[in-house]
Amino acid sequence: MPKRNDLEQKALQYIMNTGFEGVLQSELWRKLGASSREGSRIALKLEEKNLIRRERELRDGRWTYRLYPKRIPSSIDSIADVPCLKCSDNTRCDSSSAISPQNCEKLTEWLLSTAKNESGILGDS
Amino acid sequence: MLSTIDDATLMKVAEALGEEEAVKLIEILKNSDEITDDEIANKTGIRLNNVRKILYKLYDHSLVSLRRTRDPKTGWFIFHWKLHPDQLEGFILSQKRRVMEKLNIRLEYEKNHDFYYCYTPGCKRIPFEEAVELVFKCPTCGKPLVHYDNAKIVQVLSKKIEQLRKELGE
Predict the structure, then answer these.
(1) Where are the domains of chain A?
(2) What DSSP element (H or E) covers B69?
(3) What domains does chain B contain, in order, with CATH numbers?
(4) Which pTM does this prediction carry?
(5) Residue A125 pLDDT class (50, 70, 90 cuts)
(6) Interface subset of B 121-160, CB within 8 angstroms of A
(7) Angle, vertex CA B169, rays to CA B62 and CA A103, nearest 5
(8) Contacts 24+ apart (CB under 8 A), B58-65
(9) Which chain B residues are Cβ-neighbours of A102 within 8 angstroms?
(10) pLDDT bucket at B1, cuts 50 / 70 / 90
(11) Is the complex ipTM more than 0.90?
């Protein structure tokens, strides 16, 4: 049987990944292979630690809880493709110096390819 | 402590810091409490000087800590490294702020300038003021410069900045 703390970590990770949608308590325990008793105890523990919030919800004539994360997990995805993240010129890059975001070719290339991809998705010409 | 960062994010951060070698190195650090640079080099096959280079980079961002002991036989220092995944969140936030700042500078520049372009691949866009001085002739290929609509660039920048602002809760 997995340790309580492992389950807590797994449950928290799962809840956080559901974002603003949240997850039904009953669904979560099924996914994690835990019993409902164990599950509701962990949900209470996470709520006590201020990591999640629980909201009562009526499902198939039964009252259950929907669990929402208090914080959305930190992810680097939104900046992973921006060239500034890995740029080796970062320390020298400034609006008042020769290397600047204003005329950076790497940034221009990224902007143009992103614009092209987005207009492709939107079906623009 | 319950961490709010998953392994995939940890690996993406490693990649952002130093490509493939940093990913291997963090994988080893993650699975050990404390480890020396020598041991990391032996386990990963990464050259010792590169191991140290990546470790110091991680150290600069407080993602690892080090403890120094002296080898009783040689008298040399031994460095013991430890990963601090709890610092990752702060690292990600500071990187987002840094990137957002750069994008903001670019957005202002794009909004405040009119650009002219010869549409030759490899040539650069020229701001109006410079284009006038060049009599609207590309300094690289010599073709005439015509107006360049940067609306899409402004749109991409605004969208990304808005997304980062939301993620940073600003």
Answers:
(1) 4-69, 77-122
(2) strand B64-70
(3) 7-83 (1.10.10.10), 92-167 (no CATH)
(4) 0.71
(5) very low
(6) 124-125, 152-153, 155-157, 160
(7) 75
(8) B58/B17, B58/B22, B58/B26, B61/B17, B61/B87, B61/B91, B62/B87, B62/B90, B62/B91, B63/B13, B63/B87, B63/B88, B63/B91, B64/B29
(9) 105-106, 109
(10) very low
(11) no
> With an 8 Å Cβ cutoff, are A101 and B12 in contact?
no
Supply the CATH classification number for the domain A4-69: 1.10.10.10
Q: Which two tokens stand for residue A85?
A: 């993240």
Q: Which residues contact A98 (CB under 8 A, 6 or more apart)?
A: none
Helical (H) or strand (E) element with B90: helix B88-112
Q: What residue of B is the nearest CA neighbor of A45?
A: B2
Please judge whether A73 and B5 are an interchain contact, meaning their C-beta atoms are less than 8 angstroms apart: yes
CB contact under 8 A, A111 and B153: yes
Judged by a CB distance cut-off of 8 A, whether residue A36 touches chain B is: no
**A-to-B residue pairs, Cβ atoms closer than 8 angstroms:** 90
List, as ranges, residues 49-88 from A with C-beta within 8 Å of B: 49, 51, 71-80, 82, 84-86
Q: Tokens 């190195």 label which residue?
A: B25
